[in-house]
Amino acid sequence: MKSMKKFFMLPVLAAGLVLGACSADEKETSDAEAVTDTASVENLTIGLSSDVGPLNIYTGNLDWLTDMVYDKLFSPSPYVDEPTPWLAESATQIDADTWEVVVRDGITWHDGEAFTAEDVKFTYEYYRDGPANRHTHHVSEVPQIDEISIGDDGRTVTFECGYACPSLQTITFADLPILPEHIWSNVENPRKYTDLAIGTGPFKLTEYVADQHYILEANNDYFMGAPTVGKITLPIIADSTAMFNALKSGQIDASSKTVPAELVSTFKGDAQFKLAEATNLSIVQFGLNYQKAPFDNEKFRQAMSLAVDRQAIVDTILLGQGRAGDKGYPHPDSPWTNPELSTPYNTAEAIALFEELGYKDTDGDGFREDINGEALQLSIKVSSGEPIYVRAAELMVEQYKAVGINMFVEALDPTTFAAHNSEKNFDTYVSLIGPHGVADPDQFIMSHRSGYLWAKEMPYAKMDELVTKWMAASTIEERKTISFDMQTLYNEQPTAIALYYPEEVYAYNAEKFDGYVESLGYGVINKFSFLPEATQQAVSATQPVIVE
Amino acid sequence: MNRRFSYFGKKLFQYTLVLFVAISINFGLPRLAPGDPLLYFFDESTIKELTGAQKQEVLDSVGLGGTLWEQYIQYLKGIFTWDFGTSIKYAQPVTEVIADKLLWTVTLILPALLLSAVIGVIIGAYSAWNRGRKRDIGFLTMMLTFQAVPGFWIGMLFIAIFAVQLGWFPTYGAVSIVQDGTTWGFIKDVAWHLVLPIATLSIATVGSNYLLTRSSMLESLGQDYMTMAEAKGVTKKTLIFNHGLRNALLPIYTQFTMSLGTLIGGSVVVETVFSYPGIGRLLYESVVARDFPMMQGVFLMITFGVIAANIFADLTYPLIDPRAKSSAVHKGGQ
């Protein structure tokens, strides 16, 4: 009997221990007093949630990690209005279609070879003419760089575009990582290239074990100042729970994966951890298949936008960790977004529009039939790997029910979802679009050509007119004004409705290292967090907001 | 002799046929799922920007540009030359990636299978002998609980208690990234990382071994030879283990040998919870990346494993049960 009691007590004991493990209050904080310098550290371990290969831009890609090893002509990114010269010493717009860039002297690649203007020319031509990658269209189409030449001084690179390219400095130069010609000119097939990346960046990739870890070591000769961290180890921990358990147990010092809303409280109040809030310039969007009925009608899309209560999604699903998408698309924090955009929630107006279009409930079942009187049932496809989006979609089913639109959720495995999405095999979908999609103004144009927000073979007179003006504009200010008009037009009849702007929360052990800064669109785990303060200031990196 | 040859010939034909069908399914199955390797190289919005020629160039660059028939022939040739192609995600030969992961998987799964079988059999036999008593009901309840509780939950519970709260074991990985450089240090480190995953896997599978042993043992205990042995005055231990358990072991042995076949497939759940770099996770990652060559390679390994385990069971079963031997030869000669 005694043993039986012990046996039945086991689950109770286990549950108690788990609760204890999850309680932040019980953590001892005495170690904190011993630590004095948290602005620089010899070793840092940051958990990584996915394996992106040996930082070969042609296979897996994670922008902040690529950025640790490679540099761009300007920094930090296309998501700020005035990037700082980086590998470039200066850039000058000669005329509407021409730019001259003077590259820095005295920089070396991680293997000791000198960085030259030839590397810049090679990289841009390789992205344009070589195997396609995510940068290709930023050289071949928007903008369209036709000619690249090097001046007699060996340091001046001239870029000539096929049409006006006033955003070359602010967008393109701040987006494309520069590759070493002496290595990449010998790569036969970049998609099978497994050598460790060689860049000019602040960290050298010294070890990569697939599915296990990366090791980055400081490039102490870095031209923008020696890094403040000597070595960064990045273990790959795919499971979210395992990641935060590793952080709590002290096995890692920070997580590159952001903390889900339901886990934030487990880190709050624990002196050794800090929670930094950052805007990753991403949007959780509700995509509509504008190539098929009923979404091929701009008023129907407008009604769909009016009928979704974005604030309810933020309050109910995100527990307040995010902002309602009532400023529309692109991201409102991007300097390239029209601050006047508004996508209100108004069910009365939505109902009026549905009625006007002829979508009426003729059989009294509470749901509207289509204009031919046929039942209308629309699916919301969503990746099963994103439970938050699944829950958001379920809430939207209820919201649309309130205006008489019958919708249902289809959760698909992540790759099947991506396949359906890329093949346009959906009515609607919920997914996340990152800063490259919603904070880069050139990408907004590209998205209207590629089939994502619009397909170039489909007529769209008003937008086409604006695009023509945009292409002719020779200054960045003119471009910005026209972009604002495009965004206004887009949000009146959106093909991807902004549901909410996620507010990301990063957790890190502040007793180990506390030098993190936010770079817009990159969160706090970015290369500037590991560079000297003067360099951080040069790229306008900001102190993150700490969640109390 | 002829009868025996005919029996083995028939078995060989059966296995060859099964192998061929399985090999063909392994090729077709990955391609039936929506999506292709382009989804690994490009995100959903970028993929829409690619022209047909660019898509073809990507598929050509990873060896998937030919027609299905050409790919199938290439795949069959590869099997005979032990060349399963190059992984799309890892950009390395499939065989090399599998060999690396297989070592970790065997290190994890084999001890867990053995531990689970040994504990399940011993407690199952003990429980059956004490049928209806409190200790039997106690073990039965415990094992049914283990059987019902999902493996990932056990793993998460262990991590929360023994790694996060007590700090005795690591929360993730198969080996520490920083080593002391000695072989003994490496072995200790690997063992330290294995404790929680093995415990999780053992607990998650011990229930079925226990229940099978208990029911098989109960059947044995009711046989006349047990009464006879008891009447002869053999000791309790001999009675349970030599007379009862020995006869009850047959279905358990079958289950164990069959489970050896699944060993190669690893355990997706446990490997994911503990971020363990085994075959289970490899397969999952390959499916997500639609890495056709890798999926084919792993499926093929699992197929070989299951068939090899079946052959092993077929060949060794008559050794522990002579009735099977005479029956097999008899049937083979018909």
UniProtKB/TrEMBL annotation, chain A:
Signal recorded as keyword: yes
InterPro entries referenced in this protein's UniProt entry, alphabetically: Peptide/Ni-bd, SBP_5, SBP_5_dom
Residues annotated as domain Solute-binding protein family: 82-450
GO BP term (any one): peptide transport
Listed GO MF terms: peptide transmembrane transporter activity
Signal peptide per UniProt: 1-24
Keyword annotations: Signal
A GO CC annotation given for this chain: periplasmic space
Top-level taxon of the source organism: Bacteria
Identification of the protein by name: ABC transporter substrate-binding protein
Source organism (scientific name): Caryophanon tenue
From TrEMBL, chain B:
Gene Ontology CC annotations of this record: plasma membrane
Localization, UniProt: Cell membrane; Membrane
InterPro entries listed in its UniProt record: MetI-like, MetI-like_sf
Keyword Membrane among record annotations: yes
Transmembrane segments: 12-29, 102-129, 150-170, 190-212, 256-277, 297-317
Top-level taxon in the UniProt lineage: Bacteria
Domain (ABC transmembrane type-1): residue spans on this chain: 102-313
Similarity comment text for this entry: Belongs to the binding-protein-dependent transport system permease family.
Name under which the protein is recorded: Peptide ABC transporter permease
Source organism of the structure: Caryophanon tenue
